[in-house]
Specification:
2 domains; mainly alpha; binds zinc ion; about 170 residues; 7 helices
């Protein structure tokens, strides 16, 4: 055993792609069995390769895996969009309610109906801006988390599909 200095990431990548010769492959697998770091890199590479192959949809097998991934993925982005839309609406209503409660003094001190209407319109516009500024990043983070979860689910389905095909 030559120790961690023997690590060769390029060999790990080639092993994951299956482009190594038999001798080099045996050598790489021997190193992987002794080196947890390279093993982790290898597993990550295999998952990534499977994911990329799914995107290409090159043959029937990967197409069926693709279908498996599609079945396993919940329609979260759409659901999240609706959920956050409802939440943004609720925030807006709560903010409007807060305005009508706290805005009692300015409204009664306004001298004309036009002033009252204008203060309501500008107040509403300010609130709408505030709510969208608040809800925007939250919505983005929610969609991003959903996308990350989808990738994790896809990777899990791929590794499960690979395990099944290896056992079969
Ligand atoms: Zn190593």
């Amino acid at each position: 055993m030559k120790g961690p200095r023997n690590c060769d990431p390029e060999m790990v990548f080639e092993l994951a792609e299956g482009t190594l010769s038999q001798d080099r492959k045996r050598e790489a697998q021997k190193h992987l069995s002794a080196c947890p770091e390279c093993r982790k890199l290898y597993e990550h590479e295999v998952d990534l390769n499977a994911y990329l192959k799914c995107l290409e949809i090159s043959d029937d097998r990967s197409r069926s895996v693709c279908r498996g991934v599609a079945m396993a993925l919940p329609t979260r982005p759409m659901r999240a969009r609706v959920l956050w839309g409802v939440l943004a609406l609720a925030l807006m209503l709560a903010a409007l309610l807060a305005l009508s409660l706290s805005g009692t003094n300015p409204v009664t001190s306004a001298t004309s109906v036009v002033d009252v209407l204008w203060s309501l319109v500008s107040g509403f516009a300010d609130l709408a801006v505030t709510v969208f500024v608040m809800a925007g990043p939250i919505l983005l983070v929610a969609l991003l988390l959903g996308a990350i979860a989808d990738v994790i689910i896809a990777a899990a389905v791929f590794s499960a599909a690979r395990r099944n095909s290896r056992e079969a």
